[in-house]
């Protein structure tokens, strides 16, 4: 299945916020994404982040007992979005928040996945990685019964070399959308068999990939970025909610 040529976005140079929050504590990472979903600042925002320590995030609807055998000593958090578990180790994580009327998110939910994954595919092509939506293709990365996001795929997932390499999920609330995703640079033992960018670009680092994605966002969407820190209210929210996202109350809720 080929990626759509129509990004469905305006040519005007819309102002966006750009947040770089490297080595975030796992609960804080999830709480800040929640803060962006309900932020009083209604501008669209693109955030890039990594995790310290590495963590295993469960999808909102997953049963934690099914993941317990794989969890080991990893920090556990639960996302407010759906999908399978992700081991956040050697990767670039990104999130996008905007109004649900924004051109990136208008129409059917599937179209927003196509647009966002299409932007990423253009970046990967510059690195010599030919990525495409999975469509009806059977992937070599499929693994039954692991509960891991990258071992299960849908037609909208981005894949290369016959394997899934990007996992994304969304939450929509109060007229706003938060789309976040994991781009695999390397794979841990928990995610054996998935596609990684370092298989083609060995020296690729998260910050360098983030800069390439930002540039493609500007070229394709016609937007301009203001590099900012999270607002005081967003930081306050993240601090207050970080413990909840790693709490037994939430992680073991199912």
Structure, described:
With 254 residues, the chain is α/β, with parallel strands linked by helices. The chain has one domain (15-251): BirA Bifunctional Protein, domain 2. Helix content is 28%, strand content 26%. It is built from 6 helices and 11 strands. Strands 7-8-9-10-6-2-1-11 form an 8-stranded mixed β-sheet, sandwiched between helices. Helix 2 (64-71) links the parallel strand 3 and strand 4. Helix 1 (26-37) crosses helix 5 (232-245) and helix 3 (109-126) crosses helix 4.
Descriptive tags:
globular; single chain; 6 helices
Number of helices: 6
**Percentage of residues in strands:** 25-35%
Helix content: 25-40%
CATH architecture: 2-Layer Sandwich
The gyration radius over C-alpha positions equals 17 Å
N-to-C SSE string, H for helix and E for strand: EHEEHEEEHEEEEHEHH
Helix/strand-derived category reads alpha/beta
Shape: globular
- Report the uncertain regions: 1-5
- Give the CATH level 1 class: Alpha Beta
Main sheet attributes: strand count, strand direction, barrel closure: 8 strands, mixed
Give the total of domains.
1
At a glance:
This protein has 254 residues and is α/β, with parallel strands linked by helices. The chain has a single domain, classed as Bira Bifunctional Protein, Domain 2 (BirA Bifunctional Protein, domain 2, 2-Layer Sandwich), CATH 3.30.930.
Write the layout of secondary structure elements.
Blueprint: E1 15-24, H1 26-37, E2 45-51, E3 55-58, H2 64-71, E4 75-78, E5 86-88, E6 91-99, H3 109-126, E7 132-133, E8 158-160, E9 163-173, E10 176-184, H4 206-221, E11 224-228, H5 232-245, H6 248-251
Parallel strand pairs: 1-2, 1-11, 3-4
Antiparallel strand pairs: 2-6, 3-5, 6-10, 7-8, 8-9, 9-10
């Amino acid at each position: 299945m080929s990626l759509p040529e129509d990004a469905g976005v305006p040519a005007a140079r819309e102002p966006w916020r750009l947040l770089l929050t490297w080595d975030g504590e796992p609960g804080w990472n999830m709480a800040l994404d929640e803060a962006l979903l309900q932020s009083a600042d209604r501008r669209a925002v693109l955030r890039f982040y990594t995790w310290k320590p590495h963590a295993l995030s469960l999808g909102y609807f997953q049963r934690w007992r099914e993941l317990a055998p794989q969890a080991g000593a990893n920090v556990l958090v639960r996302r407010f979005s759906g999908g399978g578990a992700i081991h956040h180790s050697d990767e670039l994580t990104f999130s996008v928040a905007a109004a649900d009327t924004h051109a990136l998110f208008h129409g059917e939910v599937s179209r927003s996945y196509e647009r966002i994954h299409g932007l990423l595919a253009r970046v990967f092509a510059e690195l010599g990685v030919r990525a495409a939506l999975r469509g009806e293709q059977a992937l070599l990365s499929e693994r039954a019964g692991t509960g891991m996001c990258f071992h299960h795929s849908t037609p909208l997932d981005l894949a290369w070399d016959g394997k899934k390499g990007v996992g994304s999920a969304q939450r929509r609330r109060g007229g706003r959308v938060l789309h976040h995703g994991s781009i695999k640079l390397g794979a841990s033992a928990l995610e054996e068999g998935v596609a990684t960018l370092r298989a083609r670009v060995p020296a690729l680092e998260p910050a360098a990939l983030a800069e390439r994605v930002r540039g493609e966002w500007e070229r394709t969407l016609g937007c301009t970025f203001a590099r900012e820190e999270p607002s005081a209210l967003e930081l306050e929210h993240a601090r207050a909610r970080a413990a909840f996202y790693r709490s037994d109350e939430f992680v073991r809720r199912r």
